[in-house]
Amino acid sequence: MTDTRPTPRLRHGRASLAVSFFVQGAVFALLVTRIPALQDRYGVSDGLLPAFLAAVPILAGAGSVGTEHLVKRVRPGLVLRWAQPVVSVALLTAGSGTALWQLALALAVFGLSVGALDASMNMLGVTLQHAYGRSIMLGFHAAYSLGGIGGASLAWAGAHWDVSLPVLYAPLVATLVPVALFASRWYVDRAGEQEKEKDGKQESPEDEPASAAVSMKLLLPLCLVMSFAYIGDSTVSNWSAKYLEDVLHSSEQLATVPYNVYMVTALLGRTFGDLGVRRFGAVAVVRVGTVLAAGGFAVVAAAPGAWVGMLGFTLLGLGLCVLVPQTFAAAGRLFPGASDAAIARLNIFNYVGFLIGSPLVGALGGAWSYRGAMLVPMALVLATLWYARSFAPTPARYGDGHERSRTVDVG
């Protein structure tokens, strides 16, 4: 990847996309952190709640699949421009209804549109990184983490002062939607067009290289890494508080801290992670992140008390934060002629990991022990080391010493 001087339009595109990542981080945090309030508002039973929660990532996966086909006809920037307001309005609708069917409909719309949003957002991120000629993908996910911290903080304030969901959500949606729509004017969809713009040349989309088909066999290692990363992430988001309180015997107040620590360290890791990729390469950064994350799970599993457990969650934030952005970037390099399709398929495994992680740890914790359950996501995350070569910017070499094409047609 060669370094290039970005044009003003590329810089504007980078800033506008960072705004979208920030808005999505805030909106998603406002949903997941207020699930207990949604449950109380609609009278959702404890038995029915898991079905509602599972439906969101399943429908998000369907939305990601649909986006793969949609972007063959519509630019990813256009998909993102309209998916983002739909996600925000679905959040407001979920918090404002009174009947159970209204919640179900709102969450269904949220799931489908968030799948389209996540896929198109990362498509644009990979396109911009290619145009820049250097790693910038972690910066976009840092904006997402910052939005998540802001959204979670607002949700905490809403819960603390007993603010109703419509009153909490309405002004935020009224602010965030216009901001996202305004920023969308500067989205950059095609790296090639912007690079030609610098030379004063114009070329039609038909002049671009023909898209190659995506081979799932070649994409599979990255899909597994994506799943492993989100199994780890969902373990932290769903079980950190319970683990600290029930296993490490912390106070209820202290038990709320690990996830905040995790989000802050993830923000720090993503803020400076691009510098590490530029200096040491993606493979080295992924390997270091993997070791830190696995070490974090090991510290959590062996922690004698709450503060050592907190150290483990700190390591987890620093380690896991680099894996997802680099996995999307690697998919773009792996299939340069079909990066949009590759990212849409890879994005599905975001939701696969989210669906697997929390129930897996819960089942193992109930049947065995929660300390032992923490070793399972540790082992899965550690398996990323085996697939680290998939993050290399050069063609993969195999045991016969020959290079094989990364863009292969699957017949």
Topology (elements, then pairings):
Blueprint: H1 8-32, H2 35-42, H3 49-70, H4 76-96, H5 100-132, H6 137-160, H7 165-183, H8 191-198, H9 216-247, H10 257-280, H11 282-302, H12 306-320, H13 323-334, H14 339-367, H15 370-373, H16 375-382
Helix pairs in contact: 1-4, 1-5, 1-6, 1-7, 3-5, 3-14, 4-5, 4-7, 5-8, 5-13, 5-14, 6-10, 6-13, 9-10, 9-12, 9-13, 9-14, 9-16, 10-11, 10-12, 11-12, 11-16, 13-14
Domain Major facilitator superfamily (MFS) profile: 219-411
Keywords: Membrane, Transmembrane, Transmembrane helix
Membrane topology: Multi-pass membrane protein
The helical percent reads over 70%
Poorly predicted runs are 191-211, 395-411
Biggest sheet record: none
What is the general shape? globular
Q: Please state the structural category.
A: mainly alpha
Arithmetic mean pLDDT:
88
Helical stretch tally = 16
- End-to-end separation: 30 Å
Order of helices and strands: HHHHHHHHHHHHHHHH
Say how many strands there are.
0
Strand content: under 5%
In angstroms, what is the radius of gyration? 21 Å
